[in-house]
UniProtKB/TrEMBL annotation:
Pfam families: ACAS_N, AMP-binding, AMP-binding_C. Its EC number is 6.2.1.1. CDD domains: ACS (cd05966). GO terms for biological process: acetyl-CoA biosynthetic process; acetyl-CoA biosynthetic process from acetate; positive regulation of proteasomal ubiquitin-dependent protein catabolic process; regulation of response to oxidative stress. Belongs to the ATP-dependent AMP-binding enzyme family. InterPro entries: Ac_CoA_lig, ACAS_N, AMP-bd_C, AMP-bd_C_sf, AMP-binding_CS, AMP-dep_synth/lig_dom, ANL_N_sf. SUPFAM superfamilies: Acetyl-CoA synthetase-like. Keywords: ATP-binding, Ligase, Nucleotide-binding. GO terms for molecular function: acetate-CoA ligase activity; AMP binding; ATP binding. PANTHER family: ACETYL-COENZYME A SYNTHETASE. This is Acetyl-coenzyme A synthetase. It comes from the Eukaryota.
Length: 683
């Protein structure tokens, strides 16, 4: 790879010298888009002649019925309710495009997934033909248990084959899947079951995370109980007996979690599959805008939002961004995205995108740190992975433990290494490039959201000169703009709120069951634009640098959390009068939740109360929401209108003693001195 040192100014005050990394020569040769001028040409046509551009992409997929329509949208709330449509009138099916379409073009015996278990001894593979057979069978299970087109199915599974099968089976019959990350608490799961009105839920008895056995079925039982109390009866639960087939960590004992099917509504997966032997289950042709899935993400108000994705647009976009961002070629690539299907990255870039591209991919149940910190590189060597996709948090954690974990395995197969979920700091970027990729691989920092369906700002491995820490340029069809606080466009270099000025096929179509929230969250801040909630800078060469959330969401290890949701979990404690949670910087996680709590008269924040509060966050949301630090606050800094000034709390949590900005609008300035003095020594 050639390194060119160039100077450019990111910030007017700080002139920094940064490296620009040109695309590696071997990638340039066979790339779908080769060289920056080709990117610019294609990008221009994707904007100026967007319908034709997307029609060409869609033509690579199968449509039972085509459409002459392209994108239609309204982003301007002053003109009516916002909406997006793509290929109106077309009919297709996403699972068909993942499976039968590939089988028909001769890929039936090709391996679709290389399943790599939590324990390295647990590995298996499945071809496209075999996967189709399982998907058809499970879709028959769903149908015979009363699930049909438009019904919702909750899935609460670890990263095992049944997760992929269940998602595809839903897509095959037009049921809407709602995957809930199997690290969420019973309360979080219950809220998602109720909101989605799930007709059926798929889970497993449990899972090992490293050496730790985790019972999942009891969480589901509790969630079903809570959902029933909330008026939503879950009629059916299918349980995968996963624990009995896993190799136990050395010295470990088989966990006893009780019977996996303990209730009338429960049915064991294999028995259910057996019961539909020989039953055919045809593909349901879906309208372009029929719902495909909902996936919950944190919302500023505290209540999670069910992000709705539909059929033709999501399908076309997941297919095309996988193809472009990783420059995939099914004949030669072994692809691996380490994400969990509980998040959007797993939907678009573990399941749908790679399958539609006919790839062989690793499907990983494990942890980067188990059995030790070399797991990612050991698996890379084992399967000769060519394209890999992971998170900056994982990269930082692995970087911290030393290069020898990396260098003892052969990584010469790696051509592209992607990251997602949060800004990647230049030092982690450089480590990936130099140590992991040995200077040979292109690093692709991909910016996107649950809402965007797929990458919206990302480099192309064979085209984009890279700058460490920048997600570079907008993807095809995406018009990324920066606007100031008044909603005015910022042209050229500058900093502002990151928005999109036009629709792209993969964008969300709504918030499940809440049209107003859809309009309010994404389109009301800057009328005419979709607002991401992120801030960003643009340099003289048009490179975009996403700086992070500018709203009340925080990004912990690449996962969005709502400060309001954690606050209400803490405030549920009888001794807590009020809580305010802010993001504080963390070397590995990017940021962590730092909580300030005001206690009722006479109460003190003892270690046992801290433990109780942490437990509340764990049970109400999940382990990722547990604040690392909880500080007692004699009062919270508030404006005269009673609004907590988080800006000041954030500075205090970051360790600042002064330079807190304007404090004159506060009712009681002395609170700040007390908060600084009361900062715990580990803060
Ligand atoms: O703040 C941005 C950050 O993650 C948010 C989206 O989170 P979520 O919907 O959970 O989806 C994560 C996986 C797509 C964004 O609003 N984010 C994601 N990728 C990046 C990023 N921030 C900076 N750089 C990125 N590459």
């Amino acid at each position: 790879m050639s390194d060119v040192r160039v100077k450019f100014s990111l910030d007017k005050e700080v002139e920094e010298e940064l490296d620009v990394f040109l695309p590696p020569a071997p990638l340039l040769a066979g790339a779908h888009v080769s060289g920056l001028p080709s990117y610019h040409d294609l990008y221009r046509s994707s904007i100026n002649d967007s319908d034709r551009f997307w029609a060409t992409v869609a033509a690579e997929l199968y449509f039972e019925q085509g459409s002459t329509k392209g994108l239609e949208w309204n982003f301007d709330v002053r003109k009516g309710a916002p909406f997006t449509r793509f290929m109106s009138g077309a009919r297709t099916n996403v699972a068909y495009n993942c499976l039968e379409r590939n089988i028909k073009r001769g890929l039936g015996d090709k391996v679709a997934f290389l399943f790599e278990g939590n324990d390295p001894r647990d590995a298996s593979k499945i071809t496209y033909n075999q996967l189709l057979e399982k998907v058809v069978a499970f879709s028959a299970v769903l149908r015979t248990r009363g699930v049909g087109k438009g019904d919702t199915v909750s899935i609460y599974l670890p990263m095992i084959s049944e997760l992929a099968i269940a998602m595809l089976a839903c897509a095959r019959i037009g049921a809407i899947h709602s995957v809930v990350f199997a690290g969420f608490s019973a309360e979080s799961l219950a809220a998602r079951i109720v909101d989605a009105k799930a007709k059926l839920l798929v889970t497993s008895d449990g899972v090992f995370r490293g050496t730790k056995p985790i019972a999942l079925k009891p969480i589901v039982d509790k969630a079903a109980e809570l959902a029933a109390a909330d008026g939503c009866l879950l009629p059916k639960v299918i349980v995968v007996e996963h624990l009995k087939r896993v190799s136990l960590p050395d010295g470990g004992k088989a966990p006893q979690f009780g019977p996996s099917c303990s209730h009338e509504r429960d049915e064991e997966w294999e028995a259910a599959m057996e019961s539909v032997k020989g039953v055919d289950s045809r593909v349901e042709w879906m309208d372009a805008e029929d719902s495909l899935f909902i996936l919950y993400t944190s919302g500023s108000t505290g209540k999670p939002k069910g992000i709705l994705h539909t059929t033709a647009g999501y399908m076309t976009y997941a297919y095309q961004t996988t193809k472009m961002t990783f420059d995939v070629h099914h004949e030669t690539d072994v692809y691996w995205c380490t994400a969990d299907c509980g998040w959007i990255t797993g939907h678009s870039y573990v399941l749908y995108g790679p399958l539609m591209n006919g790839l062989t991919s690793v499907f990983f149940e494990g942890l980067p740190s188990y059995p030790d910190a070399s797991r990612l590189w050991q698996v890379t060597e084992k399967y000769k992975v060519t394209k890999m996709y992971t998170s900056p948090t994982a990269v930082r954690a692995l970087m911290a433990v030393g290069d020898h974990y990396v260098t003892k395995y052969d990584r010469r197969s790696l051509q592209v290494i992607g990251t997602v979920g949060e800004p990647i700091n230049p030092s982690a970027w450089r480590w990936l490039h130099k140590v992991v990729g040995e200077g040979r691989a292109a690093i692709v920092d991909t910016y996107w959201q649950t809402e965007t369906g797929g990458h919206v700002i990302a480099p192309l491995p064979g085209a984009t000169p890279l700058k460490p820490g920048s997600a570079t340029f907008p993807c095809f069809g995406v018009e990324a703009v920066l606007v100031d606080s008044e909603g005015r466009l910022i042209e050229g270099p500058g900093e502002g709120n990151l928005c999109f000025a036009r629709a792209w096929p993969g964008m969300l179509r709504g918030v499940w069951g809440d049209t107003d929230r859809f309009a309010k969250t994404y389109f009301s801040s800057f009328p005419g634009f979709y607002f991401t909630g992120d801030g960003a800078k643009r340099d003289e060469e048009g490179y975009i640098w996403v700086t992070g959330r500018v709203d009340d969401l925080m990004n912990v290890s690449g996962h969005l959390l709502s400060t309001a949701e954690i606050e209400s979990a803490l405030a549920a404690h009888e001794k807590v009068a009020e809580a305010a949670v802010v993001a504080a910087p963390h070397d590995i996680k990017g940021s962590f939740p730092y909580a300030f709590v005001t206690l009722n008269q006479g109460e003190r924040l003892t270690p046992s109360l801290v433990a109780e509060l942490k437990q509340l966050a764990r049970t109400k949301i999940g382990p990722i929401a547990v604040p690392d630090i909880i500080q007692q606050a004699p009062g919270l800094p508030k404006t005269r209108s009673g609004k907590v000034t988080r800006r000041i709390l954030r500075k205090i949590a970051e360790g600042f003693d002064n330079g807190l900005g304007d404090t004159t609008t506060l009712i009681d300035e002395s609170v700040i001195t007390q908060l600084i003095a009361g900062r715990p020594s580990n803060a």
